[in-house]
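re the bet — no i am not wrong, look at it urself. input seq straight from the record:
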Amino acid sequence: MTSSEAGIARSLLSAAAVRERAHAMLAIGRAGGLEHWRVDMDRLPAAAAYVAEVVRAQYPHLDVPFHARWRHFFSGGRDLWSELERDRAWKDPAERARAAFDLAVTSVLLDAGAGPGWRYADRATGAVAGRSEGLAIASFDMFADGAFSAGGDWLRADARRLRKLNGDDLARGFQVGDDNPLVGLDGRAALLRRLGEQAEARPDLFALEDQPRPGGLYDAMAARAAGGRLPAADILAVLLDALGPIWEGRPSLGGVPLGDCWPHPAMPGDGFVPLHKLSQWLSYSLVEPLQDAGLEVTDLDGLTGLAEYRNGGLFMDLGVLTLADPAEAARPQPVDGPLVVGWRAMTVALLDEIAPLVRRELGVGAGAMPLASVLEGGTWAAGRKAAAAAREGGGPPLSIISDGTVF
């Protein structure tokens, strides 16, 4: 370990680093420097028009909410979280925020791709959903049942309970069976166990006002707010510090775990490409609990777009990104391979590029529609629509080897 390596590692743990390296990767791709990819920026305006059409269809008044996990806690027309929390006599806004953090953190960490065959039947409404929406309702039901609580107060997640969770616990909660397989089941359980272990190991972040729990991160973030204002990038900074060690099999540098950050042969300098997809998805999902507790979250566009297969698939399906060898689409691709790392990085940069074009199509400014709303309205929904038109079942355009913690 060297101090210079540790310094490089820490420099990669920020939204600014994600954005800088992503745009560097896109520039390399546009110059023809990526073995696996071809980039056609001339197709971006048509892609923006396609996204704008999807936004108008879903939000005719252009009142697009933020891209966040809370959008998925709706089933059969019911807002499940609002129904659950409004019947609780919260001691103060901070207590409510900690519970919301407990739910958001556990649910987002369970949100990696489910695979095409898995479905979840919501016991409250009878609605059946797969993919991200199904994972959200399944994790919500487990939370509401106290499956993440050590006892007493059910509406919480406790470190000492999380570190004992196993694949069988999740299989029961997620209705998994031979006829309903879920990709990466054991990987998801292991991730929550490591979350529990890390919460106990870092009381300075997870236990400022309470026993170790994901909800303790609320207090850590509130402590960083100056005059009640917290930059969105600081949410991610706390999460990357808090969650770094829970990601198994990820690169590290100078003894510092890098999380969702991978080497790529085309990237100059240290060669690393930070992406931090789940941590940024979680950052977006913590904005509303922080706001509800009375904090003002500023500079939301300090976060980046998300390097996941709906956004990345949008650019592939609409021809902005194409494979140099189309046969690669059917070959299983590792998440740490240059094909996938390059695709994900360029996706982040292209989201920055498409956002102002979408706003122009809609006649709104960045203040009315920040990147978080462009994602929600938006590129994620448009990516799903394009996938459904391109492939039976609407799956991703690449065959990706997943352990349940990236996609």
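see?? The two ends are 31 Å apart (CA to CA). told u. also Residues 3-401 form one domain. so pay up
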